[in-house]
Amino acid sequence: MGFFNARTKKKGNGCPEADTPQVKNPEAADVVIHIVDDARTEKAAGFLRYLKPRQGTHRQCIYLSREMHGKLSRIVRTLGVNGSTIGGYIENVLEEHLRTYGDDINALIRRESSQPL
């Protein structure tokens, strides 16, 4: 998360020393994120797509270390929008991971399951 400036502001809490916000209407945003380097704006926008809220009522429990839960909680609480959750963040990241590496994972599964004992 090095490409995010540590200074974010909640609606109505001015931060005059911060960089210019990268949103069209900063007063309407719940959280304004200040990008440190303009060249990384696209990368930041790519990351924020993981924080979009997910729909669904059938959820399953997973276990995380306390340290990892704390890190994810801070990310979601600071950068997420209303409705963002740790579970939704994890699901969005894993969904992209499986899309990216699905063919490789399937090939490994086929190779492992076809080898005789």
Please characterize this protein's 3D structure.
Residues 1-23 are annotated as: Disordered. Pfam families: DUF3408 (PF11888). This is DUF3408 domain-containing protein. InterPro entries: DUF3408. The chain is mainly α. The protein has helices spanning 41-48, 66-79, 86-114, and strands spanning 4-10, 31-35. A two-stranded antiparallel sheet has the order 1-2. Mean pLDDT is 76; it is low at 1-23.
Helix and strand arrangement:
Blueprint: E1 4-10, E2 31-35, H1 41-48, H2 66-79, H3 86-114
Outline:
The chain is mostly helical. 44% of the residues lie in helices and 10% in strands. It has a two-stranded antiparallel ribbon with strand order 1-2.
- Measure the end-to-end span: 45 Å
Sequence stretches where pLDDT stays below 50 over 5 or more residues: 1-23
Element order: H for helix, E for strand: EEHHH
Count of DSSP strands: 2
Going by helix content, strand content and strand pairing, the class is mainly alpha
- Strands of the widest sheet, in order across it, are 1-2
Q: What's the rounded overall pLDDT mean?
A: 76
